[in-house]
Structure of Trehalose-6-phosphate synthase:
Amino acid sequence: MAVPRTAPILVASNRGPVSYALGEDGSLTARRGGGGLVSGLSAIGPDANAVWVCAALGEGDREAARRAGDSHLNPGDTGGQQVRMLDIAPDVFAAAYNGVANSVLWFVHHLLYQTPVEPVFDAEFAEQWAAYESYNAAFADALAQEAVDEAVVLVQDYHLALVPAMLRERRPDLRIGHFSHTPWAPPDYYRLLPDDVAAAVLRGILGGDRAAFLTERWANAFADCCAAVLGAEVIRDGDGDGDGGGMATAVRFEGRETRLGVHGLGADADFLRERSRQADVEERLSALRAQIGPDRKSIVRVDRTELSKNIVRGLLAYRRLLETRPEWRERVVHVAFAYPSRQDLAVYRDYTERVRRIADEINEEYGTEGWTPVALHVKDDFARSLAAYRLADVALVNPIRDGMNLVAKEVPVVSERGCALVLSREAGAYAELGEDALVVNPYDVEGTVRALHEALRMSDGERADRTKRLAAAATALPPQAWFLAQLRAL
Ligand code: G6P
């Protein structure tokens, strides 16, 4: 039995706000997820009848989705949120999520390919692409079914690039927006994709009324791709001298116009400050302090073990720091949290291994009786991340490319004594935080060594001043305001 159309506001994303573990006795245990979308959605309040459509990711999710059928999940599991979890066939899901979204679209937008040998778009990819289409269609069907007349639909991210156009076909009355949480590739790189795929992704997003991004840089890159691949017309902000060189504000294609927008998701200061004072964080703070040792400084990084995060070059820079600036030996610890991510993919497993190996090597080369230079933790623990934010002297955020990077925004909010931020110019956060950070080219290890050295030597006063300004910039658009801004714009 299908659910009646009730939702005036819909959100769609691959990963939903809840996940389930399946016990051996067949019981399901729900675990609520965090992140900007979850707290953003709370801004609209419990009476708004918003529905969140997401995919079942693992066995537990699939079982929960099956038990719910075409209805919503048990609200007791979701904090009252109405969630429709789609039970997509495991092989279709794997091909769409691992094969297309994470191995191809993610790689393109983060410039991750070693182009002499990859990508190779062969018959296997053609099958995966067909799976991606049907996975997107499953979302479009569910959204079309749930939405009341003229409802607003916010589609999230590269997993669901085809949904806006598919949904418009099914329900032309809806107001549809797409939000990209990733960077967008420049046209020459984007055109690595097979021509039909490159066009389909752009046409998919242009099927919406609005396409929004985390920074102007990514919005402009999207518009450039629309011009280069589709021959679409790009409307730009006049920059005063009439040559139209400003930010791209809309794309016109086949008689329709899709407006472009920028919403730089910020940190949730109230939540972070409250959460980082709780008992479990205090406990981990003591443990970390003991691990670092008295009178030592810390360089902290917190990432998913993700190829784009550049953890390896960060470790290489730290090794060079110890080699070329021996005064820091025994006086600093690199606290590196590298949490597991996308371990179904071999390149991610290899990368994780490499991170471990280099950390071990550094500890063997430089470690002493009372000092372990790198404290690498690979088990996901949000409370411990917050503890590390509180005590960090230096935060290292050096991604090759990143849509935003919220760690760069969270550290200054939680930091107790001020923390120097070493920040890649290729992170979206650079647009807002660049002035008070020590900015690095993520590929330049020697440059990163210099930035780390400078950060470690920064005076307490300067660190505190910069941190205050960084925190203000980082919280300019907290998740709830970010979410409401997208809704209003539609
Ligand atoms: C990025 C993407 C999100 C994704 C997250 C975690 O931030 O923009 O859409 O959910 O990474 O990746 P995962 O594959 O674990 O969902």
Observations:
- The chain has 19 helices and 17 strands.
- The first helix runs from residue 36 to 41.
